[in-house]
Amino acid sequence: MGGPVGRSSTPGARTRSRGRRTDRLGRDESPHGGDGGRSGGDGPGAGDGPGDPETPEGVRRAAHGLVGSGGGARARSSRRAPKSAKRRVLRWSACVLAVLILGTGGAGYLYYEHLNGNIKKEDLTLGDKQMADHKANAAGQTPLNILLIGSDARDSKANQKLGGAKETFGAEPLADVQMLLHISADRSNLSVISMPRDTMLKMPKCTAPDGEVFPASTVDVQTNQSLGRGGPGCTVATWYELTGIRIDHFMMIDFAGVVSMADAIGGVPVCVDANINSRGRDGKGSGLKLEKGTTYVQGEQALQWLRTRYGFEDNTDLGRAKAQHQYMNSMVRQLRKGTKLTDPAKLMNLAEAATEALTVDTGLDTVKKLYDLAEEFKKVPTKRITMSTMPNVYGTGTNNGRVYPKAGDAEQLFRMVRDDVPLDGKASKRKKPEVTKDPSAPVGEIAVAVRNGTATDSLGPASGRAGDVMEQLKDAGFAKTTVDPGNVTGAARTAILYPSADLEGDAQAVAKALGVPLSQVKRSTDVSGISLAVGADWREDGAYPVSKGKEKTPDSAGALNGDDEKACMKVNPNYTW
Q: What is the mean pLDDT of residues 465-491?
């Protein structure tokens, strides 16, 4: 088995089955199309109806008409509206689309309530752990982390037609695409981390909205099963458990949504270095068939591209993640050129498709909130967008072909995102965490509880670490330092937690004494006083091992820049024609 990166895991009872067998964990190939789940929603229906476009009802009817038909929509779109109304429509059109493709969007203000009704909502997190707060930079800005989830649900006729695999109809959905989108605090750069759906890790306890409890897993489970443990909120909790990265929002989409979105956009350019036919002799594969070079894919062909596993590189999820990155970067560039969405009918089609496609957390449950988020995405230039894949290693034995977080490299990537370090290696306008204005008490009066959180999934806790760090603090004058023997939960990185603002200065004094970065000092309601968790990054004796010169994204993350128009997928020789 590959060595997983250190992370916390809570023992618990066996996870109850949700109607899936172990041999179908990787459900990715079907007669109608191939690999992991992708994205979601359906394009909507009709609505003819005349109306004066200068009245609210007229605009609403016109909007429905634009979405509902082709030639009729073009005819109605020729009716002139006041310039201010046009500007308003175009301004709001930045909303929904950008949410899915990092920077454009929506509909029209008078279409607002209809689109709000399209959006499905779920709880942000179903886990027990409260996520740590962001640390603002000196300018008072904080980063944004959005988890993009692609569901392979076969819960509608459209999704069943696109997904095939009839034996899976009605089964619990899998989170077959998981991408964390990190917008830097200063909005100068965007980082994306994909987690392969074959990643094996331990699931946290999740409590579904209906009260059903899914105990923490005691063995490694494939990450895409998290969606079946109560919904997308469990996928969020799983990410937080592994990475320690606060998740602010999630957005989930399904098969039909990819198709309707790609149709509304008008096609996305993708490249292959040879002819590809992803349907093998055994019938497996997404059905993608393209000639060598660049092709504009849309509709079902776009879904096939995003789902293709057999045909790219080594026929694994890693190649598929690269193809998804190429698609997303190309989509962003296309939309920012503005060449595909000058027709109001297309804008309305896109707004309808996007809102029908979305399931979001309750913090993003209106078009206005999605629009505000889209405005944050739009501040990032494409040249500062970096796509990456979680560094990983292959498992062995019964988990041969599955992947595990690569120790060292995976934590380095997670740490860079936690600390708001750009993955493209370029300078950022970010500032170091601000030293609090709250004065600390005399160090001799500061009570600190130190616990040993050095355990990982593959290693037990390093002996005596809490006591060693306690002695370091006492040598620095922190006479009231004690060891907390009760909590032995593993922590990937060392952290200093404090419960309220009046103790922030004391917590920072502890960090300064030990050389721990201020970015690892967090406010948390899980503690009643200052608590120091010695993490898996400090298993050895001596001073805290602050990384010097390790701001570089690991090569194993396969970083791809958003401005790279020469990116081209390598085709597996066994899938050419």
A: 91
